[in-house]
Every structure is written in structure tokens, then in C-alpha cells.
Design a protein that fits this description.
This protein is an alpha+beta fold. The protein has helices at about 15-25, 30-35, 45, 65-75, 85-95, 100-105, 115, 125-130, 145-155, 160-170, 175-180, 185-190, 205-215, 230-240; strands spanning about 60, 140, 170, 200, 250. The chain contains 14 helices and 5 strands.
């Protein structure tokens, strides 16, 4: 399994206007005329106002190796005769999927409509598709209900600010591509994905955070009983992830 590593991102990746034009030149513009506006399909209970809110934190287990094998293969096809079409079509398939897990996940992401993807290609589409294609490689996991409380409260239990943030929000999302993706694919994702986006933990991260949670002096909770609930939730999440057979933990607080 690929491990966490600092990767020097080449600033010379040819994501030029000409490259973007090449990748998107096979866009199907007629589809925009067929459907000018369409809301993303949501589960019936969400449309009725019930069920879980899209603003609630969520967590999943991601098979990062199979996901990156698929994504990097489609990314490699961008320079081929079909341009962005295969990658766009796969993202559209998942965007329109009736599968409840896939639909719930994609509904939480800020994306353009497939009809907008079909007009022309942009770097933002590559960033969107990277996140959308994860949907096919996810399994549900129990989320921490208030990551903000966890982030603010763990330092009161002796954690460093950096470790508290990592437990609550994960690592930079673009570093996931550096850890698991092919070099050229990872470099492109590092350039197009917002550096402020966080949300993944490696199996090594999970093991480390579990050890840190076990090491907390239980007497500290006497003065911080409001943290008992979120720490129990964190333990449950880490326990599921620790038994995830090498999958990474994917976290989503605010997309």
C-alpha cells in the first residue's frame, strides 16, 4: 500500500488553455438543449424534509487503491482521441446513480450539472470528478456529530492543536492523490483541488489517533465532561476504520 509521503508538486504541468480545450473538445453541446436545468436526485426522505440533513457531518471508508486505479486510468485517457469524454461520462453516471449511498455522497458535493460539464472542459471539472468518482468505492462509517467541538476540545485533553485538527478534519484532500495516485495524475489533482479542502485519514493515522485517545488521562474528563460524547464517537469511528482492511477514512464536514 502506498504510504503518506511529501510529494514535490511540479509547477510546470501543462494545464494550459490549449490542454483544457483538447480534453474537452468532444463535449456534447446538444445535451444542454435537452435539459437546461435539473436538480440532483435525492432520496425521497430528504426531498420530503426528513432523514439526515446534507449539512450533517459524514464519514466513509474509501478503497483508495481501486479508486485511484480507476481515476488515473481515465485521467490518462485525457490525452487520447476521446479527450475528457470517458472521465466525464463516468462522473455523470455516478452523479445520476439511484444507489442510495452514491446519491447521498454526491448530493453533498458542490458540483456543476452534467449538462454544464458537457459544454466545455475546465480545471474545476477535474477537481469535481476526482471527488465524484470516489462514490463507487465507498462504504458507510459512523461520523462524529460535531467535529468542531472535537477540534476545539481535544487540546483540553492534552492533544496538540495539529493532532486535534487532524482527528476532526483529516489531512488535505489533495494529498490523497499524492499518496495513492500515479505521479502525473497526482500532480494535476494537486494543482486543481482547493488546498483548503481536508477530509481523509490513512490507516497509519487511524492507528496513531487511536493510541492517542487511549493515552488520554481519564481524570481530565472530570473538568470536560462535554467532551465524553464526541470522544466516544471518535473512538467508534476509529474502531470501524481500524477494521477497514486498509481502506482510508474519508470525512466530510462542510463540502
Amino acid at each position: 500500500m502506498a504510504r503518506w509521503a511529501n510529494v514535490v508538486v511540479a509547477a510546470s504541468l501543462p494545464l494550459t488553455a490549449a490542454t483544457i480545450h483538447h480534453w474537452g473538445r468532444h463535449a456534447d453541446k446538444t445535451s444542454v438543449m435537452q435539459v437546461l436545468h435539473r436538480a440532483h436526485p435525492l432520496p425521497a426522505e430528504q426531498l420530503a424534509g426528513g432523514g439526515r440533513s446534507l449539512d450533517e457531518p459524514k464519514a466513509w471508508l474509501l478503497d483508495a487503491e481501486t479508486f485511484h486505479a480507476e481515476f488515473c486510468t481515465l485521467f490518462g485517457a485525457l490525452s487520447g482521441p476521446d479527450g475528457a469524454a470517458p472521465l466525464r461520462e463516468r462522473a455523470t453516471e455516478l452523479w445520476e446513480s439511484p444507489d442510495p449511498l452514491v446519491s447521498d455522497y454526491v448530493s453533498r458535493l458542490p458540483t456543476d450539472l452534467p449538462e454544464e460539464w458537457a459544454v466545455s472542459f475546465s480545471e474545476s471539472h477535474l477537481a469535481q470528478w476526482y471527488r465524484i468518482l470516489m462514490a463507487a468505492h465507498l462504504a458507510d462509517a459512523p461520523a462524529v456529530s460535531d467535529p468542531g467541538q472535537l477540534r476545539r476540545g481535544l487540546p483540553d485533553l492534552g492533544w496538540s492543536t495539529a493532532d486535534a485538527r487532524r482527528a476532526a478534519s483529516g489531512r488535505q484532500l489533495r494529498a490523497l492523490a499524492s499518496a495513492y495516485g500515479h505521479a502525473e495524475c497526482a500532480t494535476a489533482i494537486n494543482l486543481v483541488l482547493d488546498p483548503g479542502l481536508r477530509g481523509w485519514l490513512s490507516p497509519d493515522d487511524v492507528a496513531d489517533l487511536r493510541d492517542r485517545l487511549v493515552a488520554v488521562d481519564r481524570r481530565r474528563f472530570r473538568a470536560h465532561q462535554d467532551l465524553v460524547g464526541v470522544c466516544e464517537e471518535l473512538w467508534s469511528l476509529l474502531d470501524v476504520a481500524a477494521n477497514g482492511r486498509g481502506r482510508v477514512l474519508l470525512l466530510l464536514d462542510h463540502p
